[in-house]
């Protein structure tokens, strides 16, 4: 069984589904980590793909860690602490780095539970849309551990330090409407319309000039950890690349001629 299903949709949108509903799409085990990384690598290399929608098969987006493998000597935990650290670095910690490096925009269509590392997986995406039944929890403390997959870096940057602290220190669950209020998601829709809405948004992104989209995402990601001066320097370099593209010339011509542009990726 493929742990990640991918489907190319019209307009350069790739639908990616975590496909392990028996574990509620747990992402802590190495096979799932590798499957996600492989799917991201394939998408990045495919010039026909311009945006990704990530969701979960079944009733959950992702339950995060596999609780059945959290006992001593199981899963990521090893009798030797130094080996546990290695397991994290070579396992689940590769995911936030991969999403950070990815140039394609990713929209998380959060169905049902996004718990622990599953919540953090949604945070790794660029945009989050929640179904009304969606529930989020930075719940590591409830099983006696800390966010080991980058959640402590991601969550405060999205909801602010105080709210991130509240979520991480209590492990409380946040529903879809609260997630919208605190900026954890940008939109809440009926469950039945979730994937359709996310795909439509991905389609609007994919319809833009592909080089400009990739470089804009890269610029937004880099700017999060750079000074204003550094951001301006990188912006100028990226702008030089965009000005040299055929799609830039097409966009300007279409605007002046009052017609719909046709972007070729050149």
- How is the main sheet built? 6 strands, mixed
**Percentage beta strand:** 15-25%
Strand order of the largest sheet: 1-2-3-5-7-10
Poorly predicted runs? none
- What's the pLDDT, averaged over the residues? 93
Number of domains: 2
Architecture per CATH nomenclature, i.e. the level-2 architecture of the largest domain? Alpha-Beta Complex
> Helix amount, in percent?
40-55%
Count of helix runs: 11
Written as H for each helix and E for each strand, in order along the chain, the element string is EEHEEHHEEHEEHHEHEHHHH
CATH topology of the largest domain: 2-enoyl-CoA Hydratase, Chain A, domain 1
What does this structure look like?
The protein has helices at 30-45, 81-90, 94-101, 117-124, 151-159, 161-170, 176-181, 194-206, 210-223, 228-243, 246-257; strands spanning 4-8, 13-18, 51-56, 60-62, 106-110, 113-115, 127-131, 135-137, 173-175, 187-189. The mean pLDDT is 93. It folds into 2 domains: 4-206, 2-enoyl-CoA Hydratase, Chain A, domain 1 (Alpha-Beta Complex), CATH 3.90.226.10; 210-257. Strand 2 (13-18), helix 1 (30-45) and strand 3 form a beta-alpha-beta unit. With 266 residues, it is α/β, with parallel strands linked by helices. The strands form 2 sheets. Strands 1-2-3-5-7-10 form a 6-stranded mixed beta sheet, with helices on both faces.
